[in-house]
Amino acid sequence: xxxxxxVAVLLILSGCNLRVLDPKSQTASDQAFLIYLSFGIMxxxxxxxxxxxxxxxxxxxxxEKKRNDVPKxxxxxxxxxxxWTVLPIILLIGLAVPTVxxxxxxxxIGASSEETMHVNVVAEQYRWTFEYENGKExxxxxxxxxxxxxxxxxxSKDVIHSFWVPNLGGKMDMIPGEENQMKITPSExxxxxxxxxxxxxxxxxxxxxxxxxxxxxxxxxxxEE
Length: 225
Ligand SMILES: [Cu+2]
What we know:
The chain has 225 residues and is α+β, with helices and mostly antiparallel strands. It has four helices and ten strands.
């Protein structure tokens, strides 16, 4: 009965409307690639260890015949030492190179061109303010044009908040007195849920917003409204 209740709770909680591995921007696809890559490498290691473990447990189990055998005395094994030093190094390089490259690319705001759009995002207990270059301000929805590079300038007025629209990119902290930047290029029109991902006070759960990605024309119209 207890188990059943737990499964039910899990099912209810999994009804969350945030989709993490459903990238709708270049940044999010790059990050999803890193998640799959690291997960793949981990699974490879788990598999190799599991196969070796089961193999050895079987091979060296006690049998009638081997009961009184004394194993040969071994002092080190150079081949094995090399294998288990070099293999992890190769795996770590395979993980580190794309991670560092993508991390730099995502946060390389200096490389932005003139075409880049800038939006100031300010968090405070308990609301968001999205401020566009022409002075337009919104609180409930962040509207972005599709296929347009956008740099979000993230700050906070009071405590630490965290900006998170899973479809568009990973979480980014919003720190009072400091500015963090996030570069995204939405690749598909649609409405994506966003929220504050850092517990910031009693009404933390109210810090939700919608990101609407619309076509360029619609965006211009909306911006001038
Ligand atoms: Cu918050």
